[in-house]
Design a protein that fits this description.
Elements: E1 3-8, E2 18-24, E3 28-29, H1 31-39, H2 43-50, E4 60-64, E5 73-80, H3 87-102, E6 108-111, H4 123-137, E7 157-162, H5 168-193, H6 201-209, E8 216-221, H7 223-229, H8 232-238, E9 246-253, E10 262-272, H9 292-307, E11 312-322, E12 334-336, E13 342-344, H10 352-365, E14 370-375, H11 379-385, E15 390-394, H12 397-410, E16 414-416, E17 434-435, H13 443-452, E18 460-464, E19 470-471, E20 481-482, H14 487-498
Helix pairs in contact: 3-4, 4-5, 5-9, 8-10, 9-14, 10-13, 12-14
Length: 499
């Protein structure tokens, strides 16, 4: 990640390669822009009169050797209507201009975006949003590209400029938070973007173990330990794979000694071909992303550890591949889970909920304060919500409310779907306790109903990230591939719980 710092100072006095100023709709300059306009004589005023940048959101123009400034470039970035601007807009603007400058030869730059007015946002919120936009937007996963060109003039440092030195302490704290959050998001992205022949359950276990420190204990169970523990649902799904499964437990002790932890549970399907109920060939390569739930959990633990948050966390990840082999589990099989409930398998491609049954039951057994699970669980959630929001279901009203608040603040958004008791009827089985699919109707909801059987009476929220975990088109703050969905959402949720 490039180096980002904060300071206060006038735009005309900066000696960086570029100064970045917001331009509002109607060609209106911000306060720093107005000061620079006075220092530059008629140069900036003349430019605004003659050229076609209007201040519309995302429009950009670069001026070179502006009179009265020390910087080589002045970059005007359109911020649109200030009344409509939100924190996500700052992230997007920061990302857009950082990407442009990363290719332009500007190595050290100053950015004045935090001086924009955003309803309900503090200066610290704005500094954090700008830094997140830069760090998330400049993310790349190119380790397997042997012909990539080295950019010797890539962006090296960025200074987030604030109006007053009195706010430096709060701004620096916000920057530190952004650094840890983005470290967690980009770690989750890295894990998720790895190809399936690299990111196996063993690899995932090794990556989890690498996070351990004095406050974070990590236990990685191999197949023998999984068999001894009785995680039989995970073993059933693993039967078709030559790669051994892993069951990963993380325990972070940052809060009071006897305080019950928040449990985070992740689905870790490192590749999902669908098993005997094989998926269509088109886009099957994207099924390496079926472990994004586990990546989110690990990303959160990384961020929380770096932030040293005063909270206790329990992480539980069940990891395997779901492939076709001579021993693969079959439609019609009946599986006994860790909890003792039996499952009639009607579709081997509904395997995520099966391995989560063991992970959730184990987490519930530890008596946490609440459980949040992350899973790329259903195509039905993609149909319902697309890539704009994560599906939210569960039994814990307080945790769901908190996740909604954090989703709105971070733009890592959630949308709640109902779990009426009548939906439970769809997963009844005539030969086992439950079946692993509930038919075509309400697929996301019936999948959550299945999971609800394994959390006991503990407050629980289920996050179906099937539509948000990866994006092959890319967005302003997320290049093509894994997005790290869920990390910023839950880190913000945990931060608020610590206040």
């Amino acid at each position: 990640m490039i180096e980002i710092s904060v300071k206060a100072g006038a735009a005309a006095k900066q000696r960086d390669d570029a100064v970045i100023l917001p331009l509002l709709e109607g060609r209106k300059l911000s306060e720093s822009g107005k000061e620079l306009q006075q220092a530059s004589g008629k140069t900036l005023s003349g430019f605004l009169r003659k050229f076609d940048i209007s201040g519309n959101f995302g429009g950009m123009r670069t001026l070179y050797d502006v009179e009265g400034t020390f910087s080589q470039r002045v970059v005007l970035i359109g911020a649109g209507d200030e009344k409509k601007l939100r924190l996500e807009g700052l992230r997007r603007l920061a990302s857009k201009v950082a990407r442009r400058l990363d290719k332009s030869g500007a190595r050290d730059v100053s950015m004045y975006l935090p001086e924009l007015n955003i309803k309900g946002a503090s200066l610290a919120d704005k500094v954090q949003a700008v830094a997140e936009g830069v760090w998330l937007g400049l993310y790349r996963f190119d380790k397997y590209q042997t012909q990539k060109k080295e950019n010797k003039r890539a962006l090296r440092s960025l200074t987030v400029m604030i109006p007053s030195r009195r706010d430096l302490e709060a701004a620096e704290a916000a920057l530190a938070t952004a650094r840890s959050v983005c470290s967690g998001v980009n770690f989750a992205r890295d894990l998720s973007n790895e190809p399936g022949n690299v990111c196996t359950p063993e690899f995932l276990g090794d990556q989890a173990a690498g996070l351990a420190h004095n406050k974070l204990n990590v236990t990685v169970m191999d197949k023998a330990a999984i068999e001894k523990a009785g995680f039989t649902a995970l073993l059933a799904v693993n039967q078709g794979s030559a790669k051994e499964p892993r069951f990963i437990v993380l325990e972070y002790k940052g809060g009071e000694k006897d305080a019950a932890p928040v449990a985070l549970v992740g689905k870790g399907l490192t590749f999902d071909a669908g098993g005997i109920s094989i998926k269509p060939g088109a886009l099957m390569e994207e099924m390496k992303f079926d472990m994004c739930g586990s990546a989110a959990v690990l990303g959160i633990f990384k961020a929380v550890s770096e932030m040293n948050l005063p909270v206790n966390l329990l992480g539980v990840i069940a990891s395997t591949e779901n492939l076709l082999g001579s021993a693969a589990y079959k439609p019609g099989d009946v599986i006994t889970t860790y909890k003792g409930l039996t499952i009639e398998v009607q579709n081997t491609d509904a395997e995520g909920r099966i391995i989560l049954s063991d992970a959730l039951a184990y987490a519930a057994e530890q008596k946490p304060a609440e459980i949040i699970d992350f899973a790329t669980l259903t195509g039905a959630c993609v149909v319902a919500l697309g890539s704009q929001a994560t599906g939210l279901l569960g039994t814990g009203e307080k945790v769901k409310k908190g996740l909604k608040t954090s989703g709105d603040h971070t733009h890592d958004r959630v949308w709640e779907l109902p779990m009426y008791e009548e939906y439970q009827e769809q997963i009844k089985s005539h030969i086992a306790d439950i079946r692993n699919i509930g038919g075509r109707d309400a697929g996301t909801i019936t999948a959550a109903c299945f999971l609800s059987r394994f959390v006991d009476d503990i407050p629980w929220a289920h996050l179906d990230i099937a539509g948000t975990a990866w994006d092959m088109k890319g967005t302003d703050i997320s290049p093509k591939g894994a997005t790290g969905a869920g990390v910023r959402l839950v880190v913000d949720y945990l931060q608020r719980a610590c206040l």
